[in-house]
Amino acid sequence: MEFTKVPVGISGMSARTNPQIKAIVQGSGDDGGQSDEEPRSLTITAASSNPKMFTLPWEQPLSQWPQELLANLPRGISRHVVRFVHVGDEVYAMKEITRGVAEREYELLRRLQKLDLPTVTPIAVVTGRHSKSGEPLESILVTRHLKFSLPYRALFARNLRPDTAQRLIDALAVLMVRLHLAGFYWGDVSLSNVLFLRDADEFSAFLVDAETGDLHAALTDGQREYDMDLARTNIIGELMDLSSGKLLPGDVDEVEVGNGLVDRYHSLWSTLTDTEKFGPDEMWKIERRVNKLNELGFDVDELEMKTTEDGNRILVRPRVVDAGYASRKLLRLTGLDVQENQARRLLNDLDAYRASTWQDDEDLEIVATDWMRVVFEPTVRMIPHEYRSQIEPAQFFHEILEHRWFLAEKAGHDIPMREAVKSYIDTVLPKYKLNTEDVDKLNAEADSGVVDDESTYGFDGYGSDADDADDTDDSDDSEGSDAIDSDPDAAVWAS
Amino acid sequence: MAEVVFEHVTRVYPGNDKPSVDDLNLDIKDGEFLVLVGPSGCGKSTTLRMLAGLEEVNKGRILIGGKDVTTMQPKDRDIAMVFQNYALYPHMTVADNMGFALKIAGTPKAEIRKRVEKAAEILDLTEFLDRKPKALSGGQRQRVAMGRAIVREPKVFLMDEPLSNLDAKLRVQTRTQIAALQRQLGVTTLYVTHDQTEALTMGDRIAVIKLGILQQVGAPTELYDTPANVFVAGFIGSPSMNLNTHPVVDGKAKIGSDTIDLPADIVAKLTPEDNGQIVIGFRPEDAGLATADDANAFSLKVANVEDLGSDGYIYGTIITDDSALESSATMSDQNKLTTIRVNPRALPKVGETVKIKIDPAKMHLFSPSSELRLN
């Protein structure tokens, strides 16, 4: 079945213009329909319409898409073929998987988004793909690339702080607690299935792969424990792999880091969900509990308070907790939408600014407007152009504050902002840059676990020559179907 | 010995009135490959997750190797969920990829090597043990992932639609591999799928489940040859069984304007609730073309024919009073048409009316009210 490219423009979306293309644009309240039948023509089910989606070469296996369409960004390890693709002004992550799995994951990601959980944004499912010769191709799940994010392997590819592994684990523990509180069982927790965003001195973790997940009303202890057990095993494995590749600082104990994740998760979980018991004259303990949750970045929407049967003790348990305490506060004051720790840092600077400008009596909203105009915006405008896609403004601001403090300590006196920014751009920022060579190396590594007959069986031979395998994804697979028919692997099982 | 036993197991999800799994009694014998099959939402995955310890059991108990595990944590049950999208680590050798989980568990080095070598032999990966995943083909990579589960040597393997994320070509190949592998290893296995072809080709025994209730357990041929009820009859087999409800007149089934003999002892089993009707089922291969004067044959108007070279298929509607039977009275799929397998050299033309005779020994008779098998 031949697929003709449709000219860019909304009119191109009409099924009448090209009967082989169907577009289903879903409203936000619609969970989308699924049918059991494989669509015969290309069908794009999308949450929003981006006409440029129709100009992509869906009739080609993803591993063979032309280089000029691809964004050279580091990918994580995956069993599937994954590519970052420029679509208009955006970059989308495309994953080639079977239709059922693609549709299921798309719906699940949409539901997680509605719950305001940190996940990638689903864009579309593309089904009914066929090659020019009419051979069916796997479906593609499209998600929006999370700007400024990096897979963990890219973070280790550069010389970073020795505690990087620990900070990633901390971020993952927070993510796990948030997902579990919302009733999401992951079934395949690993660093590879997460993207990390810098968040002041910490990281924030985002779920990118929900293939094995399930959303429940509430999770059983068994589900949570199994998720964490699997997370521990996978993470230790991933760190052992980095260690084999000499990418992990020598003094990191992989098993200890993995165990650390489970401990951190449990302590966070119990802080958020445990019932506390105290006397009627100790009501201040409720406030202490709420403050502690705020410090951890959680808002308490609902507290459950009960008295014991004898009426002598009060039982308190947070019922609904919401992450993003500081980031919501900052958003309300400034309109800046940033990560939790960045927000905390910016709020602290805002407080400092209020005190230093003698505006303590002024409304915080008004001071915030001033601070944005006088402090924040002039600083982030100084981010050199070539770094604008690499560092988030809020992160840049945080790092400038750190750097200024470091310079001041060395000099023994305050350092003007402008001077700190210049020094930071000259000495620190270049370390952020991931060069093309590094990205290519990371992506070749990431592809070495892909289980896909188009890209793997496409080349002649079955991996006996290690050098050939490098070209796995770029190989011409015109012989693909013949190769599998005569697959020597199959013979292994015949006996 | 690791026999798995479900004893009166019930799972009701919070907020639901009806159980997702209702009073399930099921034994999986030591070393057996049991496939749990049913349409989506039938409770098959819930059953597997209860065995894994991921779902609570509201009533009843679950035993693994004679030990009650009903309230035990998943990691203490000595089970392995296979195919969790296992990632392959690029810097680690094939041997390390397979054995690292044992290293974490503190298994001695020599023991790890022994188990990895044994698994590699079964998976035909011995010569690749010291190489990196990059040097492997897709199929070999897939097998390394299987190796990661095998080396744990668990009491039970659990597989929940493990082929769903493979493309069509790899799916058929891996299906054969898993079945062969399980037989070599002899580890008790519970395999969940919605695909009856997977069930028929892989399982030692198949358990069919619908709306949380176990319908029938048996060897593939048993389910195929003697389905216990209308649901199993229609679910197992592809193309599926022809199932129609017909009036019973003078001890004979009336199919359109024709009649077919029914065994007297079966007719005697019909109850007033059956309303003078019977469900007749027959597989497409258990009927054939008959001559115009053949007794016990019925008329079929040919709506479509298919010539597959080795087989031919007729799809048609049953003629009643010279018009096609109301489709609402039919219970099989294939667009509600009756399917007959014939010699492809003797295919009738579309629009023709042909006489069809069912092999009486291969006829499946069910009560319309209880939907249970009568013969």
UniProtKB/TrEMBL annotation, chain B:
GO cellular component entries: ATP-binding cassette (ABC) transporter complex, substrate-binding subunit-containing
Short name of one Pfam family: OB_MalK
Gene Ontology BP, a term: carbohydrate transport
Domain ABC transporter: from-to ranges: 4-236
InterPro entries, per the entry: AAA+_ATPase, ABC_transporter-like_ATP-bd, ABC_transporter-like_CS, ABC_transpr_MalK-like, ABC_transpr_MalK/UgpC-like, Mo/tungstate-bd_C_term_dom, NA-bd_OB-fold, OB_MalK-like
CDD domains hit by this protein: ABC_MalK_N
GO molecular function: ABC-type transporter activity; ATP binding; ATP hydrolysis activity
Alphabetic keyword roster: ATP-binding, Nucleotide-binding, Transport
UniProt protein name: sn-glycerol-3-phosphate ABC transporter ATP-binding protein UgpC
